[in-house]
Amino acid sequence: MINEVKVFVPGHITGFFEIIQNTNPLLKGSKGAGITLDEGVITTCQVCDGNGNLKITVNGKHNKFNTITKKTIDIITDRYNVDLGCYDININHDLRLEIGAGFGTSASFALGVSSSLPSLLGVDITFKQAGEIAHLAEVSLSSGLGDVISEMYGGCVVRLKEGTPVNAVIDKIQITKPIYVITKTLGSLDTSTIIENPTHQIRINNSGSLLLNQLMKNPSIENFIKLSDRFSRNTQLINPQLEEVIQQLNEDSIGASMAMLGNTAFALSYSPDTQVDKCRVTRLNTSGIKFLE
């Protein structure tokens, strides 16, 4: 008898952020703001009696770079003292978003596993505890700092206090009508090379903290995208090729900026139409994580 849980976790684009270091990984994270997408990751977790076999796939294929899933499993087994030797586990992540392009896919992978696997192993945990596991996996691999909590709740999430979902504080910008997210990816970017770089950290933190205060004084989606664009320029993370795409997207949208952290331009719009070729168009997600039948 195979027991199965399937969960959808939205992708997430960070507009701007501030890195908050802490030797305690439960308190390490980021403050800032971002948006979730109706595109994301559907994680299917199957557990049955067995001999300790573990199979992890992405779109049905083995992916040696998907270390976040294994790390999440390790945290679950260590925290709850679970012996996997009597189980066979199959985990598949189904996604159409690019990995390493600023869509928060590593957080989606981790949250998909932390939300589905424990119950199949007979471990009952809360919504925030599942998020805490995913956050710890992200922080340990330096693959993200604030995507997890945003993906849990959906919408345009403002992260007011850093740390795991148990410790963090968030708010949301109210979305009163459908908003489309238009993205164009030019390649991948290694998040850890930026968030662990002292020079980048100084630029990010000097800009991110000021912009968060400005967003809370005027908490609108228009102000969010304007401040995101300012952040990409203040931090000098934007490259000429991406700048060109952002300028094109700006012409027929609310505004555009760079996805943090990825070689992706994103725009917010009240219309799905765009003049830019080869874009992905999805809606801004407002519901967060969702279990599927």
Task: Report what the structure shows.
This protein is an alpha+beta fold. It folds into 2 domains: 3-172 and 288-292, Ribosomal Protein S5, domain 2 (2-Layer Sandwich), CATH 3.30.230.10; 175-283, 2-Layer Sandwich (Alpha-Beta Plaits). It contains 8 helices and 11 strands. The protein has helices at 67-80, 105-120, 127-141, 147-153, 191-195, 198-217, 221-234, 240-250, and strands at residues 3-20, 29-49, 54-58, 87-95, 156-161, 169-173, 180-187, 255-258, 263-269, 280-283, 290-292. The strands form 2 sheets. Strands 1, 2, 3, 4, 5, 6 and 11 form a 7-stranded mixed β-sheet that branches. A 4-stranded antiparallel β-sheet has the order 8-9-7-10. Strand 5 and strand 6 form a beta hairpin. The chain is globular.
What would the principal axes of the Cα set say about the shape?
globular
What's the SSE pattern?
Answer: EEEHEHHHEEEHHHHEEEE
CA radius of gyration: 18 Å
Oligomer: single chain
Number of strands: 11
Q: What is the level 1 CATH name of the largest domain? A: Alpha Beta
Terminal Cα span: 17 Å
CATH architectural group of the largest domain: 2-Layer Sandwich
Low-pLDDT regions:
none
Q: Helix/strand/pairing class, anyone? A: alpha+beta
Instruction: Tell me the β content.
Output: 25-35%
**Count of separate DSSP helical elements:** 8
- Total separate domains: 2
Residues in helix, %: 25-40%
Average pLDDT level: 95
Largest sheet: 7 strands, mixed
Return the CATH topology of the largest domain: Ribosomal Protein S5, domain 2
